[in-house]
């Protein structure tokens, strides 16, 4: 078996390391019968190009961010809602593992488009970087914010008064450097590894959302696997949940130090107070109604169920 596995990140970054580890485990378990070639981001085009490659079966497997599928799988934009998951990354991962709303209901929505998400996992809490200090929603007024392409991500920033611009991360360093955009959101490891802090003056520890990625497979290809292979893929996907949690944790901790210690490119780290976070949350809440009424194709049922699951998990 020769399969292709594409990721949205490059060597060393969480998604890429995930795919390499996945490939290694599959190769070992199958006594060398399964060979998975892992592709770094860039070689096969943009994040949205990669979505199409998975759908057409040009690649069998992909790590995909829902932030790039929002124009197609409307419900998947649930991850664009700020302050929805618990502040704890660990609790968030637990919900991603166990949620029926996501692993059954949302999965079906993706499968209508030939994409089967086998798992959802976090790459860490997201933070803002910016060219000016951001501590309250008013600081976002007319602020040029880079986002991924899902329309609801743009809505979330419009709710703060910002002017969001979707683009691929491959163009982001230059766009920040030139001032085409003034800020962006990402987990700390990604900010540090992609060196965005070099061209930004501030990093706000906002924890406004968790970055969620999905391990996806082409639906027809997956359904066509023999039972032994399918079980091996499923088991490996489950095992990898704990592995990737530790990997993102380690990388996010290490890169926070790297950014703090980079005296050649100083970045002021701003921690939001509870009160300040509440101000952002207040502005973010109406976006949930917007999701329910305008975005969801099933009257917000998946969101309702997910919110119940989050409540049951406790803060
Ligand atoms: O900001 C982005 O678009 C990129 N961020 C991460 C953490 N992974 C890949 C994604 O394309």
UniProtKB/TrEMBL annotation:
Organism placement in taxonomy: Bacteria, Bacillati, Bacillota, Bacilli, Bacillales
One of the record's GO cellular component terms: outer membrane-bounded periplasmic space
Name of the gene: dctP2
Keyword Signal tagged: yes
Superkingdom classification of source: Bacteria
Keyword Lipoprotein on entry: no
InterPro entries (UniProt xref): DctP_fam, TRAP_DctP, TRAP_DctP_sf
Record protein name field: TRAP-T type transporter subunit DctP
UniProt entry keywords in alphabetical sequence: Signal, Transport
Biological source species: Halobacillus halophilus (strain ATCC 35676 / DSM 2266 / JCM 20832 / KCTC 3685 / LMG 17431 / NBRC 102448 / NCIMB 2269)
């Amino acid at each position: 078996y020769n399969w292709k596995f594409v990721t949205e990140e490059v060597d060393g970054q969480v998604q890429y390391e995930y795919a390499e580890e996945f490939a290694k485990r599959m190769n070992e378990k199958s006594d060398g019968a399964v060979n998975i070639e892992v592709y770094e981001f860039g070689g096969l085009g943009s994040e949205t190009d990669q979505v199409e490659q998975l759908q057409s079966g040009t690649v069998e497997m992909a790590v995909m961010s829902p932030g790039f599928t929002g124009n197609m799988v409307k419900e998947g934009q649930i991850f664009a809602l700020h302050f929805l998951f618990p502040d704890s990354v660990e609790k968030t991962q637990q919900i991603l593992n166990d949620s029926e709303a996501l692993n059954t209901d949302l999965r079906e929505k993706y499968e209508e488009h030939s994409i089967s998400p086998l798992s959802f996992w976090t790459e860490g809490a997201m933070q803002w970087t910016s060219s000016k200090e951001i501590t309250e929603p008013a600081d976002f007024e007319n602020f040029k914010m880079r986002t991924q392409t899902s329309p609801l991500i743009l809505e979330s920033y419009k709710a703060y008064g910002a002017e969001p611009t979707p683009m691929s991360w491959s163009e982001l360093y230059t766009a920040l450097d030139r001032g085409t955009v003034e800020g962006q959101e990402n987990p700390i490891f990604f900010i540090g590894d992609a060196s965005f802090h070099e061209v930004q003056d501030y990093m706000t520890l906002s924890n406004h959302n968790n970055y969620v990625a999905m391990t996806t497979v082409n639906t027809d290809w997956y359904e066509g696997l023999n039972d032994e292979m399918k079980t091996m893929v499923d088991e490996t996907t489950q095992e990898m949940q704990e592995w990737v949690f530790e990997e993102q944790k380690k990388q996010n901790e290490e890169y926070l130090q790297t950014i703090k210690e980079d005296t050649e490119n100083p970045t002021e780290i701003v921690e939001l107070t509870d009160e300040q976070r509440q101000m952002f949350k207040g502005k973010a809440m109406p976006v949930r109604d917007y999701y329910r009424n305008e975005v969801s194709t099933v009257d917000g049922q998946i969101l309702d169920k997910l919110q119940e699951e989050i409540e049951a998990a406790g803060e």
